[in-house]
Specification:
Blueprint lengths: L10 H4 L7 E10 L4 E5 L6 E4 L18 H4 L5 E8 L8 E3 L4 E2 L3 E4 L5 E3 L5 H14 L5 E4 L8 H27 L9 E4 L4 H8 L16
Parallel strand pairs: 3-5, 8-9
Antiparallel strand pairs: 1-2, 1-4, 1-10, 2-3, 4-5, 6-7, 7-9
């Protein structure tokens, strides 16, 4: 049995992680020497977006422009970002502009085009999953298939992809609405999508058929 460490009541809510949250951020400054941009996501301390995490397809570079951060972003720009690491000490949160949305069976990559399937799965299962996902994943999007997808039905995979597609559409609509705001500096920074609480994340990310039961403490959970 796996035992989660006991916690002080209520600490789950107060120590919520920002990782996975999607924001419309505002670029504060770009440091070419560090190949990084500092982005205001509305959390007081600026978060950091390194060049290696920039979504170059969305950056709108001209044909011959080098993939350098100063060519992609400048101070005052709005940028769609996702937190990959929470702030620690004096370091701000780490960001990526390559958004990915985790589901039960797949991680949905809205602006990706590849389908990645865990090597842990047998070849026949990999082929089956690939064939199903080719039918259900929208053009212009990609997925990373989780090991939990082993044995999942076409209907289950389709439902997972559809739910994540809708989630992405909601994020895009919120981003567009925030950009349209004319007050002051516009609608950025703004939280567009927050990851669910710990209970839901554990079930989504950790649970497989290896688990027989889940013991939950507290009415709210």
């Amino acid at each position: 049995a796996t035992h989660w460490p006991s916690r002080t009541p209520g600490i789950r809510e107060t120590t919520a992680s920002m990782a996975g949250n999607v924001y419309l951020g505002r670029v504060q400054n770009v440091l070419p020497s560090m190949e990084a941009a500092f982005v205001d996501i509305g959390k007081g301390r600026n978060a950091v977006l390194y060049a290696g995490e920039v979504n170059w397809d969305a950056a709108g570079l001209e044909v011959n422009q080098a993939k350098r951060i100063e060519n992609a972003l400048s101070s005052g720009d709005t940028v769609l970002v996702q937190v990959t690491k929470d702030p620690i000490g004096h370091k701000g949160a780490r960001l990526t502009s390559q958004i990915s949305l985790p589901g039960r069976y797949v991680v949905y990559v809205p602006e990706g085009s590849m389908t990645g399937i865990s090597r842990k799965l047998p070849d026949t299962e990999r082929a089956r999953l690939k064939a199903i996902l080719k039918e259900v994943v929208p053009d212009g999007a990609g997925v990373i298939v989780r090991t939990a997808a082993e044995g999942a039905s076409e209907a289950e995979l389709k439902a997972d992809v559809e739910r994540l597609t809708k989630q992405w559409e909601r994020i895009e609509k919120k981003a567009e609405a925030a950009k349209q705001k004319k007050s002051g500096s516009g609608g950025a920074p703004a939280l567009l999508h927050g990851e669910p609480d710990l209970t839901i994340r554990v079930i989504r990310d950790v649970f497989t058929e290896d688990f027989a039961s889940l013991v939950v403490s507290g009415e709210k959970a």
